[in-house]
Amino acid sequence: MTAITDFQVKGADGKPVDLSAYAGKVLLIVNTASKCGFTPQYKGLEALHRDYADQGFEVLGFPCNQFGAQEPGDAAEIADFCTVNYDVTFPVFAKIDVNGSGADPLFERLRKDAPGLMGTTSIKWNFTKFLVDRSGKTVRRYAPNDTPESLRADIEKLLAA
């Protein structure tokens, strides 16, 4: 089975980015939005990123405008918002779709590997999070209302493995 780190995505600049650059790391992949009630989670995501980066952990942000049109900006506006408001240093990629016929293949795979409640595969809202182990296997999906802080024990377990 293909590892998550075998996928290619688009960087904020529109250029291809091979996720193989993150091979061997524990990843938290999140669909984000700048105008969402969960947007303050950027602060917690950045705290996780800073606290665990030296142990091989990365947060990867994927802006998405599919939920209430809460990510209307272009790449430059999104990057500026993240930097100015939350001092985000983790990678924020190009805006994507996470559901439907235009869904990014990475998120199609994440949804399949870690279904939601009652086996549903679609993503329900912004700030759905997927934890990926060092081998590139999706370990778990977290709901938008699961705070970044509440994921620490699971992240630490994977980092120690």
Structure overview:
It contains four helices and six strands, in the order E-E-E-H-E-H-H-E-E-H. With 161 residues, the protein is an alpha+beta fold. The strands form two sheets. A four-stranded mixed sheet has the order 4-3-5-6, sandwiched between helices. A two-stranded antiparallel sheet has the order 1-2. The protein starts with 7 loop residues before the first strand and ends with a helix.
What's this model, at a glance?
The chain is α+β, with helices and mostly antiparallel strands.
Main features:
single chain, 161 residues, alpha+beta, four-stranded mixed sheet, two-stranded antiparallel sheet, 4 helices, 18% strand, globular
Total count of helical runs of at least 4 residues: 4
SS class: alpha+beta
Structural Rg = 14 Å
Specify the overall morphology. Answer: globular
Task: Give the ordered list of helices and strands.
Answer: EEEHEHHEEH
Strand content: 15-25%
Number of strand segments: 6
What is the spatial order of strands in the main beta sheet?
4-3-5-6
* Share in helix: 25-40%
Low-confidence stretches: none
